[in-house]
Amino acid sequence: MADENQNPAAAPEAAAPAPAPAATPAAPAATPAAPATDKPLSERDRQKNINEVFLSLDGGAGDAAPKVVKAKGSKNVTSGIVHVVATFNNTMVTVTDRNGNAIGWSSSGKMGFKGSRKGTAYAGQVVSQDACRQAMGHGLKEVEVRLKGPGSGRESAVRAVQGLGIEILAIKDVTPVPHNGCRPPKARRV
């Protein structure tokens, strides 16, 4: 009977370790490599998994030199239009084919500029280079440049297009001019 009196005291101690086994099944569920089904992988899937592991081990870089990759969904467009929208606060560039279908675009914010730096001439140059490089992946060789807006990124965007070796066929200013439409912003008192 003395043993029975000690067992009730031991019973709460035995109850305390009970939650610990419940936590152990969570460890196998945390492994993402375990397949959801128990089916064996096909040879192709198994090889794909092996390649992913090797790529993750060497940082994604192979032994060979980097390949020149054609743009995704390449269209082979040789002639296009560069639309430059340069406001006081931002510069946006879209490169389209002759029908107006976009083949590359960029903006100051996309290139990492923030705040007042988005409206600078340097931001216009970087944005134009990025958009034109995207379009050159589709085979772009010659363009017509259409400028819109009064921003400081206008001229630098055109120089950036020339610097990439793209032939400029024409430069047009398509800034909309109101025939006394909307009231302009009030003049700054500095």
UniProtKB/TrEMBL annotation:
Stretches with biased composition (Low complexity): 8-37
Source taxon at top rank: Bacteria
Keyword vocabulary terms for this entry: Ribonucleoprotein, Ribosomal protein, RNA-binding, rRNA-binding
MF (Gene Ontology): rRNA binding; structural constituent of ribosome
The UniProt record lists the keyword Ribosomal protein: yes
Chain spans, region Disordered: 1-47
One GO term describing the cellular component: ribosome
Keyword Ribosomal protein: yes
Pfam families in the record: Ribosomal_S11
Gene3D superfamilies in the record: Ribosomal protein S11
Gene Ontology BP term (one): translation
Function: Located on the platform of the 30S subunit, it bridges several disparate RNA helices of the 16S rRNA. Forms part of the Shine-Dalgarno cleft in the 70S ribosome.
Protein family according to the UniProt entry: Belongs to the universal ribosomal protein uS11 family.
Quaternary structure and partners: Part of the 30S ribosomal subunit. Interacts with proteins S7 and S18. Binds to IF-3.
UniProt protein name: Small ribosomal subunit protein uS11
Species this protein is from: Roseimicrobium gellanilyticum
